[in-house]
Amino acid sequence: MSDILILAEFTGEKIAKTTAELATCGARAGEVTVLVLAAPGKGNALAAQITTGLVTSVLVIESEDFARYSVAAAADAIAQIVLERRPAALLIASSAFGKEVAGRVGVATESGIITDAVDVAADLTATQVVFGGSTTVHSRVSHGTAIITVRPNSVTPDLAPSTPVISHASYVISDSAKLAEVISSEPSVQGGRPELTEAQIVVSGGRGTNGDFGPVEAFADSLGAAVGASRAATDAGWYLHSHQVGQTGKTVSPQLYVACGISGAIQHRAGMQTSKTIVVINKDPDAPIFEIADFGVVGDLFAVLPQATEGVRARKS
């Protein structure tokens, strides 16, 4: 069978579900090896978390260079592995970090790249949704290793138990990867809510909040949900860009998505329309987002959300 490499994703020191999503795609085409890039002494603990998904083996690489030189060091190490093993494909999560790694590895290995795929078939044909979700494209890399970045939450992961074989390797990072050094970094403050792309429930606010996300946050907290925002809300400075849901933000696919005061422009829908159940609260009955809603409430979110919040709290008590 073909050798398929995937780059493990971690949230802090916890394995992200994106890893299982990538493994699910990769297993359609061959045997999956998960690459774990870690700081010295951290690799075994991270690799031990890979106990689900269609994974055959885990390759751990430890180096202090991954922290010092970030994406350049990661790409350099992965490129060496690709040149050594010549896998059929390398699958990476489609984050800013992942896409930069993919680009660097593609140049170093003279391989073709496809970004922002929403699915990968057994013959490594990638599916992309472009132009705000209005067009579906099927494409395949024709030269070198197929390097494909996959949008998180686009694929339902196979979470069957697995016991992959864990091995270790070491690589000397090239001098060219050390031309820029990370002086300092600090993780973003998550607060008490779940991480947006990992949450089972997401409550998002848009232009209809008029900048007041209080009712949205209160309702989210009553459900134990993450909070998202439309591009209009983040561009206006009402909420952090790291919480933006949409084509140019994060892709989410929770069990429940509640859109509050969001008109439903195609840009936003591209980032959440695969949610299992979609509830819409909007005072405009003609808002486009009602077209994809499973349940809709026509009303002012400032009147609807406080009542919904009290109802949830009462039911819990």
3D structure, described in words:
The protein is α/β, with parallel strands linked by helices and 317 residues long. 27% of the residues lie in helices and 26% in strands. The strands form three sheets. It has a nine-stranded mixed beta sheet with strand order 9-8-7-10-6-1-4-5-11, with helices on both faces. It has a five-stranded parallel beta sheet with strand order 13-12-14-15-16. It has a two-stranded antiparallel ribbon with strand order 2-3. Strand 7 (113-120) and strand 8 form a beta hairpin. The protein is elongated. The mean pLDDT is 93.
| DSSP E strands, number | 16
> Oligomer, anyone?
single chain
Mean pLDDT level: 93
Radius of gyration: 21 Å
Distance between the termini: 54 Å
Number of helices: 9
**Largest beta-sheet characterization:** 9 strands, mixed
Class inferred from helices and paired strands: alpha/beta
Helix percent band: 25-40%
Identify low-pLDDT runs: none
Shape: elongated
Q: Beta fraction of the residues?
A: 25-35%
Strand order of the largest sheet: 9-8-7-10-6-1-4-5-11
Topology as a string of helices (H) and strands (E): EEEHEHEHHEHEEEEEEHEHEHEEH
